[in-house]
Amino acid sequence: MKKRGERVSRERRGSGLEEEPLKTEGRNIQEKSPAQTIEDYQCSGNVELDFPELCALHGMREIPLVKLKQPLVSSPPTDSGETEDGQILSENPVTTWCPKPCLQVELENEDPQSAKKIIISGWRVDEMMVQVLNKTLPSLSNLQCLKMWRTGITENILTSLRNTIIMCTNLRTVILEGNPIPEQSYHILMGEDSMINHLSLRNNRIGEEGARLIGSALSTVHSANKNLLTLNMAFNCIGDEGAIYISQGLRFNRTLLCLSLANNQIGDTGASSLAEVLGPFALTHEEIIERRQLMVDQLSSQAVTAVSKCEGSLSVPSSSSIDHMNKGSKSIPKKKDSLKKEEKPAASQTVGNAGKKEDAKLAKKDTRVTRSRGGKSGGKDKSLSGSEQEDKSNCAQKTGEEALNPLLDPDIRHADGKVIHPGNNTLISLNLSGNKLTEQSVQKFLSSVVGQDEGGLLHFFLNRNCFPKDCDAFLKILELMSLKDPLNKTSSGQGDEEQGQEA
Q1: pTM of the model
Q2: Residue 459 burial by CB count (10 A; 0-12/13-18/19+): exposed, middle or buried?
Q3: What are the 10-residue block averages of pLDDT along the chain, 503 residues in total?
Q4: Regarding the domain with residue range 31-287, which homologous superfamily does it belong to in the CATH classification?
Q5: 140 alpha-carbon distance from chain centroid
């Protein structure tokens, strides 16, 4: 019996039948665990495939669903803006509700790898889920908006999300609403390395301390945020002190266009501080010292560029250039001898040539006169060497960068022993609806708007405050802003043309 069994096993080995269970067993192990850890997993950019797989690698028992939303072809694209209630609008907002935790994904087109908006709404995001998002979101090359509503995040989770947002190349809109954090550290989303353009922090119970941190993130004497365009802080409780901190952040911020502080319990004290920043204001002692230091740095940089120019013009010629000049000088007499041999034409030819030479001289004179009358000619720029042109362009870039610093504003003036700054003319939309403003603070806003020469406020929301609707100061503000609004100018011009055609 043993010999027979050995004979059968030898036949199976020769036919290769015993190798099949080994192969199938190894294949089953690879299918069960293609990636042992979350670090080994390579994301494909398809949220519907990557998100559940990463959740499974973390050992989650309940994996949130992934709900895709196809783009609406009929809906026209709209730019990100701000409503009167302080809401930041975005393209095709997703408002669907799911009873179970789900990750809502809005696609740019039919391609599953074209996710442009991620929405997490109404379920808790813990440390494990943050690790999944840290792996998933940076792989979405088309991601433009991240919205998190009532997710129960903490300060550590917010810090981790900040690091993830930095890695997302095209993520420019972050909506973090209904997420109160005791530390109120929302300012970490507005650092100098942040590329966020639109930030919404509605209904987060932000108080005085949070407003102080956000105001410092907007700008200080030494630094300023240069990417944030819209900031929505509606439905918080910053009060008068918080509004003062925000106004301090607006002193030297020249990027923010739209600011919403609706429903924040702001009274006349905080509103007056905001109004002061919009118009001419006096620099503090610390700001004057920083301004002088910037001016010294500017003069030193100009001196360095002047020295570099002088060194470039007084450079010693190389041996190869000297040899080339010597060879050129030796070849000049030969050309003169050849010209002397050809200087004996016939008499008739000399008369005609003389007339031609005189015509040529007159033509040259005419061109010189026209160039001198026309101002600077383009020939001077062309005659400059490449290094000189580069120096001119570098100087122009440096002066442009320095002009962007509000402390070096050319319109700063001295009056009554004070250094007066022209104010913030960059902010075009301010929402103070639902606060405690009276006619006193509105009058201060009117004087600030009148002091704005170019730019300045175009939209000013003051509904549901403590002053009558027919307030003279508010009506004058609206009239001034309507005159500055370019859209109203074009519409009024078209209306005049239509009336003229009808007449």
Answers
A1: 0.72
A2: middle
A3: 50 46 35 63 93 92 90 48 52 52 93 94 94 95 96 95 95 97 96 93 97 97 94 98 98 96 98 95 94 89 75 56 49 43 40 45 42 39 42 42 74 92 94 96 93 84 93 91 73 49 41
A4: Ribonuclease Inhibitor (3.80.10.10)
A5: 20
